[in-house]
Design brief:
Length: about 280
C-alpha cells in the first residue's frame, strides 16, 4: 500500500531539530508558569497551573513530532512515503500491526496505509465491509477499544473475519485537526501498556502535527498523498463545491474530480485548485 515518492531526508532532520527547539521553548515557558504558581497570590495560582499544563502538553507534542520525523528519516533509504509513515508509527507505539485511514466528510475512504501482513489484511477487510475500528473512531471522534467477543458484537460483518485472523484486541484513535477529524489510526493486538489509548492518541496527534508541517515533503503522487494534510482539506472543500454544482453526493463529486484528473493526465490537486479558484466547473 505504499505510495510512490520519497521523503526529503535533510528536510526531515531539519524539522526534527526545529521541533526540538519548539519543545525546549515550551518547556521553558512551562517552568516559568510553574515558578509563578509557587510565588503568586492564591487567586492567581490556578491560572498559572493551567498555563503550565498547556505548555507541558505542547512540549510533549513537539517532542513526539520530532521523534516521528527522526523515525521517518531512518526509513527513507529503503521505503516509500506511505510505508515510512506507518513504520514510524509502529516504531513509536511498539505495535507491529498498524493501519492508517483517511476519510472524507461523509465517511468514504480518501487514503489508506498499513503495515505489511496482519495490518494490511485487517484494513483491507474494513474497507470492503465499510465498518470497523477506524470508521468508529472517526465517527465518534473518540478512542475505540474492543477486545474478544466485543469485536464481533460491535462490527457484525467485520468482526468474525478479524477474529479468525487471530486479532483479539483493536484500538483506534481519531486523527484530529482544528477543522475536524481526518481519519483514524488503528492498532491490532496492541501492547498492553498503550491500551488505555492516551499514548496512541498522543502518537495520532503528533502525526497530525507532523503532516501539517510536512506538506512540501516528498513527490506529489497523482492520487491523494498522506503527506499532505492541507491537500486533504482542500479536496474535501472542492468536493463540496462540485456536489453543490452537480447536485450529487460528495462521493460522486470525488469521483468526478478524480475522473477529470485522469482524463487530463494531471494531479488531483491541480483539479482541486481549479475548482476552488472558480476556473473549472464539473
Amino acid at each position: 500500500m505504499a505510495r510512490s515518492g520519497r521523503w526529503d531526508l535533510n528536510l526531515l532532520l531539519t524539522r526534527a531539530a526545529a521541533e526540538d527547539i519548539r519543545a525546549d521553548s515550551a518547556a521553558a515557558r512551562a517552568a516559568e508558569a510553574e515558578l509563578r504558581a509557587m510565588r503568586c497570590v492564591p487567586e492567581m495560582h490556578d491560572i498559572h497551573v493551567s498555563a503550565a499544563r498547556v505548555h507541558r502538553s505542547n512540549e510533549e507534542l513537539h517532542r513526539a513530532t520530532a521523534r516521528l520525523h527522526r523515525s521517518l528519516a531512518r526509513q527513507v533509504t529503503t521505503q516509500a512515503v506511505g510505508a515510512s509513515v506507518v513504520t514510524a508509527i509502529s516504531e513509536a507505539t511498539d505495535a507491529p500491526d498498524v493501519a492508517l485511514l483517511l476519510l472524507t466528510s461523509d465517511g468514504a475512504a480518501a487514503g489508506s496505509q498499513a503495515t505489511d501482513g496482519l495490518g494490511e489484511t485487517a484494513q483491507d477487510l474494513e474497507l470492503v465491509h465499510g465498518e470497523g475500528p477506524s470508521h468508529s473512531a472517526w465517527n465518534s471522534r473518540q478512542p475505540v477499544l474492543n477486545e474478544g467477543d466485543e469485536i464481533a458484537h460491535h462490527w457484525p460483518h467485520l468482526g468474525p473475519p478479524l477474529r479468525s485472523l487471530g486479532i483479539s484486541t483493536v484500538l483506534a484513535v481519531p486523527i484530529r485537526v482544528p477543522h475536524g477529524v481526518l481519519g483514524a489510526l488503528t492498532l491490532y493486538n496492541p501492547p498492553a501498556r498503550i491500551r488505555c489509548g492516551s499514548a496512541l492518541q498522543g502518537a495520532a496527534d503528533a502525526f497530525a502535527h507532523l503532516l501539517a508541517r510536512t506538506v512540501d515533503v516528498g513527490q506529489a503522487p497523482d492520487s491523494l498523498d498522506l503527506a499532505d494534510i492541507d491537500g486533504v482539506s482542500r479536496l474535501h472543500r472542492a468536493a463540496g463545491v462540485v456536489a453543490v454544482d452537480c447536485d450529487c453526493s460528495v462521493n460522486d463529486a470525488l469521483a468526478l474530480i478524480r475522473a477529470r484528473s485522469f482524463v487530463e493526465n494531471c494531479a488531483t490537486s491541480a483539479i482541486v485548485e481549479r475548482v476552488l479558484s472558480g476556473d473549472l466547473r464539473l
